């Protein structure tokens, strides 16, 4: 069973009516077998296991009620059909009471742990919503669908990151991958996302946004070094998308109109995987971007110049697919990597909003259902043209 966040939740306790009917049916069945068989064995003691079974699924109140009922049935049976002398009867009764008390204690412990896990999951959901914006997102420029699946699914957050911001300069999109996997990469990812959310609005030029992300990673690495933690780098691609009719807003990010809703995209790549342009006829074109250095490694550049910006056109019927290496590095039993271009071509007829999950399913099938890294897939397409007034 999945919760609202799409994550598995604990099974619900059975209803009181189902518990009452189940306990009564089991009691009648055991007593009938005892009466019909004529055996001297005290089959009624089998009822002691009923509360134990219920303790694994039911509430504490249900387990207590079942335990009291079973104890009463055993006592009544011992009075009506004495098993032997008084010490034997007392020993049986004490054994039943002790067993049921232990069962109630185990049930209470289980319920307490489930509540703790539920609170932890609520915290994780809140953290994920603060770190990663829920998808899909629609702005005047783009419609962005996507899938985010961390390697450690119970944590709900990991080393991949993405964000989208509707700004006066156009819609800015970020996708990235922090060095390392899972929870250890969260701190660096949070630093990058925080810097992006500020710089995306503040900086007219996309290269300046990338510079702000670089500075954020450098500051975080300095803090990590002081704390004795590992320094990390981040691969990322930063995009700016503007619809042809977007207002210039006094910046250098102007749209182009080559007919229809074809949209200009500007991109700065920081060592990340190049995106793919998927056309309706099944053609898949890798978008050639300058590799650039990952965020946090700009000091290695000899020139010290900003990372280059590249422009390209997103056709009105095209889909721009952005990935992390959780997809590209999926391997089959022979060690072969998942053929992303062929996989996207096979999915050309799939609607853009279903494309990320479909691609992830195929990559997981290729790797035998296992994952070695966090997975992020974003499908970006031009926003629908607003109706004419």
From TrEMBL:
Transmembrane segments: 18-36, 43-70, 90-111
Protein name: Serine/threonine-protein phosphatase
GTP-binding recorded as keyword: no
SUPFAM superfamilies: PP2C-like
GO molecular function list: phosphatase activity
Keyword terms: Hydrolase, Membrane, Transmembrane, Transmembrane helix
Annotated segments matching region Disordered: 363-389
Organism, as annotated: Kitasatospora xanthocidica
UniProt KW Membrane keyword: yes
Annotated PPM-type phosphatase domain residues: 142-382
PANTHER family linked: STAGE II SPORULATION PROTEIN E, STAGE II SPORULATION PROTEIN E-RELATED
